[in-house]
Each structure stands twice: as structure tokens, then as C-alpha cells.
Amino acid sequence: MATMGEDIYRELRKAVDGHGYGFAASISGIELQLLRRLFTEEEAETYIRLTSDLETPEQVAARTDGDPERLAIVLEGMAAKGLVFPKRKGEAHYYAAAPFAHGLIEHQVERMDGGLARLIEDYMWAEKVPQEPSSGPEVETGLPLRAMPLRTVPIMAPVMAAKAVAPYEDVSEIIRAQDRIALANCYCAKQQEALESGCRQDLEVCLLLGFYADYYVEHGMGRKITQDEALTVLQRAAEAGLVHQIPDSEDPAAICNCCPDCCGQLRALKMLPNPAVLVTSDHFAEVDAELCNACELCVDGCSMDAISMSDDEIAAVNLEKCIGCGVCVVACPTDGILLASKPAEERQAPGFTTSFMRSSKDIESTAR
What domains sit in the chain, N to C, each tagged with a CATH number? Predict the structure, then answer.
């Protein structure tokens, strides 16, 4: 076990980096300040003992030569702070290490203040120590795009497709398959609000599913809603121009309705000349020149600035920037834009689960 003090937070950073999306070290060391804000030294030592699977305090103690009674107390406190994932199964209590994202930072949604928001923002954009082995530059740029773990799915809009949209590409179909749904405030919007740079969109737009819905409801981060209520949230998000993003999985555990001005991933993508290359999406916007009335609502609403007006006053889509979200389709009053499916060879089917946000079935199956 690491010694107490600064060393314990360096060991904690390595432990967090081993889960989910990862947690790279930065050149500035800002991540250590962030960890100190979130964890006490005892909590840091406890986290290091955990795995990504759900275990009881007794199982953790037996594996690490710890005190199960003390572990139970500390782990329950950590669950309340969003540092671990808890699960109740009969009389047994289980805990798993929460990754950096989705996990540690999103779980601070109702504890966000200006200081924490600034630490998170500074870490997101900090230059990172390159992963080993590295064939690239000595320092990774500060764009928070390390693994691009989210899939952009069609917003509730017409789609021009030779075949039906797959269930994992249709947010309404994802909702209809759920028996546990929670509605929560958007972490990204709350973080930007704390920095006094957020937008005026509705904050309560994040949908958590299954295992994650239970956790959010039990710990006061969200409220339980029905399928019909969730579909209403999706419709409201579509009309507000928010982008649907899900973990890149056939069994996604959340639906993020993302504001381009607040979402870290969308903000970073918008800075690049070719975001379409990095985004997992099977669709793109296509303009019907005969129906376009040059209203420019699609131009104003595009999250990636992928649409402009041509010299003959017809909307034109830059396919290197279009991420296939369908926001422009909802905005268009004449049906002059629809989503088209990419060629079969360019489509990307997800795996059953993802390291960014494990499916409910996957994580719940580990509680034995």
C-alpha cells in the first residue's frame, strides 16, 4: 500500500486510469488537485483496493487483508459522494470502483461549485502525458477526445434509409426497452453553469437506464420516470436542438441530450476541421435543393457549423463536419433536409458493452 500524503494521490490516479475511459496524467499535475478535492486519504486507499466488478466489503477485505467492518463504513460514504458504484442484492451490499467518466465527475452533478468546476475544466484541456508506448508527440494536446466513447444517434427525425434504423440507433426504441429510467440534470451544463459560461437550455435532460438509474435515484441525483415521460424529454430535447449521444453499446446505459455549448466532447469536436471522422455515427445530413427555402435555420442550429449557404442560396452540408445528429432536420420547416444512411462499409456496429459505461447486465452480473 502506498504511503500517505502526495504519494497516495499519485497511486490513486493510476488506479482510476485503470478503469473505464481512463484518467491520464497531465503535465501540470492538475489531476492530483482534483483527486484531493474528491477523496480523503482513507477513501483513496480504499478505492485502490477495488476492481471494476461489484464486490462486498467482505470480498474486498479477504482479497486485500482489510477490515470488512471499516471497509463497509467507508464504502457507503464513498457511494454517497459518487466515488463508487453501489448495488443492493438482498441483504448484501456491493461496490465497484467508479471510473473517471462516466462516473466520478458526472456523479458530482448536484455538488458542483465554481472551484470543482474549474478543476475539472482545467484538467479536461490540460496537456496530458502520452500513453506508453507512444509514437506521437511528447505531449498530447488538451482536447478531451482520448477515446471518443460516445455514439451520436439520430435525433427524433425522418431518416432516408434503405433499411430500418437499428434499435441502438433510435433513442425512442432504446427507451421502450427499459424498465428502469431516471431523469437527472446534465452534468456538463451544471459544470458550465458553475463557471458562469453555460447556456439557457433546460438542465434536466439526462436519462439514466437500468443499474445507473437505480443509483441516481437512490442517491438523490435523479428521479424515476416512466417510458412516456422519457419520450417527452427526448422530444423536448430535439426541439431545443440538443444532440443525442449514447455509450457505443448495443445495450446503452444512458442517453445524453447534449448542448454543443456545454458538452465537453461536442465543444472539442467543434474546434476540429473534420469531426465526422472521429464520431461514431451511421448517418449524415442531405439537402433537397428543390425544398430548401434558404431560411438558414439549419445553419443556425447545426452543432458542428457543418452547414452553410451556397452561392445559389441552397443549404450545403460539409460531410467532414456533419456528425449525423439530425438537429438540422428538426429545425427545417420544409423537410428540405433529411438524414441519409452511410454506405454499408462505413457503418460501425457497436459491441455489446463499452469501457466508457458498462451495460446494466454486464455490471450487475458481477455481484455474486
Answer: 6-137 (1.10.10.10), 150-154+162-268 (no CATH)
